[in-house]
Amino acid sequence: xxxxxxxxxxKVQLISSLVLxxxxxxxxxxxxxxxxxxxxxxxxxxxxxxxxxxxxxxxxDQRVALDVPFKDETGKxxxxxxxxxxRPVILVMxxxxxxxxxxxxxxxxxxxxxxxxxxVGKEYEVVVVSIDPRENSELASIKKRxxxxxxxxxxxxxxxxxxxxxxxxIKQLAxxxxxxxxxxxxxxxxxxxxxxxxxxxxxxxxxxLLGVDFAPRDLNLALIEAGENRIGSLSEKIALLxxxxxxxxxxxxxxxxxLLQIAGCGTVLMLACYIGSMLYMERRRKxxxxxxxxxxxxxxx
Length: 301
Fold this sequence. Notes:
By secondary structure, this protein is of the alpha+beta class. Helices cover 44% and strands 15% of the residues. A hairpin with a 5-residue loop joins β2 and β3 (77-79).
């Protein structure tokens, strides 16, 4: 090869080494960060204190107790499993008379649901279970009407369900999904945490979104995962590949390792194309150069 092409080859080798070193360094940092994160754990709650009584323990991949009996907003006897089998299910456990965090939680759910392209009753179900056994179907019917007033989409009434139940049914479901709460000794009102439980159509707990203010991106990705990629657009499914669920925060974060893998593959592909084009140009150049004319043997003039 000529000096020009030798210099290019050296540059390619240098670039390749630098890129490889950068990728390995980044991957090493990410793996260390991931290992550190896996080693983190929450401090054990104080026994007998409020923190020990209230909270949400994420039981991912556990099957929901679908045979627990409740009553729907019309007073009909139902089982939780009646709302599973076709679509992902958002399970929420407030109580209807609550004027505090429950209202904020349900407002947050309605707000984020309005921001999604997918709709209740078409792509997913919402099941609201009151944790106050004193509440009845009449109150559940009133709350459903209020929720549907704020979430006004065709077919939503068929996918939005408000249930009430006995203390035994409520406790069985709460223990099953990791929802810790207790009843105030004076008022009898439930004291609880807030969050959405996203379930697969087959009744497995897939994701938990904690708090009262939910990001549309988080709920959208959670529904796509719970729906086994049967809902959502192609771009949203690609976004899911570049995201990972953080159970500590109860939301999605950027999957740095996956992004590094994609970037690394792209870099290798670009280098391969560049080197291949150089080799192709060099071969073309050699093919175009005519062979040097040799001197006749014995010609010493």
